[in-house]
Amino acid sequence: MPVDQSNLRTRFPDVYALGDVSSGPRTVAKAGIFAEAAALVVADDIAAKIAGEEPPAPYEGWGICYAEFGDGLVSKVEVNFLGGPSPVAARNDPSLAFAAEKAEFGATRRARWFGG
Ligand SMILES: Cc1cc2nc3c(=O)[nH]c(=O)nc-3n(C[C@H](O)[C@H](O)[C@H](O)COP(=O)(O)OP(=O)(O)OC[C@H]3O[C@@H](n4cnc5c(N)ncnc54)[C@H](O)[C@@H]3O)c2cc1C
Q: What is the mean pLDDT of the chain?
């Protein structure tokens, strides 16, 4: 579904599209991390409209991906698809710190989505 990628609005008033179903002139990977980031912008855009406030900062197509390297080591890639003229990605070397961060990332989402 085509959207304005800065705020995920469709051409229909008050209708948004985000996640795998949305598309725009610029490429953003289809991944849950981007759907989550887009959902935050949509929520803020709706809240700003209701409150009559300025819209949030544009959606940047920002996300992270953790990669397991064995021996308890995890690397993290950070990607930003829309924040600049072309996509940028930064790769971090595997470490135990990223392994702990990945565990925390999963734990916070399990708690938020499923409780407990
Ligand atoms: C094997 C695999 C591994 C992946 N690994 C990762 C990963 O490591 N990290 C990551 O960030 N992303 C990963 N992804 C991608 C991620 O799962 C998707 O990008 C993400 O789920 C998209 O979220 P969404 O809400 O847009 O769509 P979905 O999660 O697909 O949700 C859409 C929902 O709508 C429902 N639906 C469909 N049609 C209708 C209808 N007509 N009426 C009512 N409901 C309907 C579907 O049943 C579904 O529940 C992976 C995907 C796959 C397949």
A: 96
DSSP code at position 7: T
Q: 23 CB under 6 A from ligand 1?
A: no
Mean local confidence (pLDDT), 41-49: 97
The verdict on residue 11 lying in a domain is no
Q: Which domain holds residue 97?
A: 19-114
Number of domains the chain contains:
1
What pLDDT score was predicted for residue 91? 95
Question: What is the number of the ligand 1 atom nearest to the C-alpha of 32?
Answer: 11
Distance between CA atoms of residues 82 and 88, nearest Å: 9
Look at residue 10 and tell me if it is in a domain.
no
